[in-house]
Write a structure and sequence with these properties.
Keywords: Membrane, Transmembrane, Transmembrane helix. The protein is mainly α. The chain has 1 helix and no strands. The mean pLDDT is 85.
C-alpha cells in the first residue's frame, strides 16, 4: 500500500514539475525575446520614421505637381488665343445711323 501512495505522489510531482518547468521555459524565452526586441526598437523606430518621411516627400512632390498643373491649366497654358482670320473684317450686323 505504501508503494501505491509513493507512486501516486511521484506521478503528481512529475505532472506539477513538468507544468512548472514548461512555464519557466516559456517565461525565459519571453524574457529573452523581450530583451532582443527592446534593443532593436530604436533602430526599428528610426527605420519607420525614415519610411514615413519618404512617403511624405513623395506625396508633397505629387501635390506640388498637381497644383502646378492646375495653375498651368487655369492660366491657359501655351495655347494662342483664337483670333479672327487675318485680312477678313467682320461685317456689322446692323447699319450705323439708322
Amino acid at each position: 500500500m505504501e508503494q501505491a501512495v509513493v507512486a501516486a505522489l511521484l506521478v503528481v510531482g512529475l505532472i506539477i514539475g513538468a507544468g512548472v518547468g514548461a512555464s519557466y521555459a516559456r517565461a525565459k524565452r519571453g524574457w529573452t525575446d523581450y530583451q532582443t526586441i527592446r534593443t532593436s526598437v530604436p533602430g526599428a523606430r528610426r527605420n519607420a520614421w525614415l519610411a514615413i518621411r519618404g512617403v511624405a516627400v513623395k506625396l508633397a512632390v505629387i501635390a506640388l505637381l498637381l497644383v502646378g498643373a492646375a495653375a498651368y491649366a487655369a492660366s491657359g497654358g501655351d495655347e494662342e488665343r483664337a483670333d479672327p482670320t487675318p485680312g477678313v473684317t467682320p461685317t456689322p450686323s446692323h447699319r450705323a445711323g439708322r
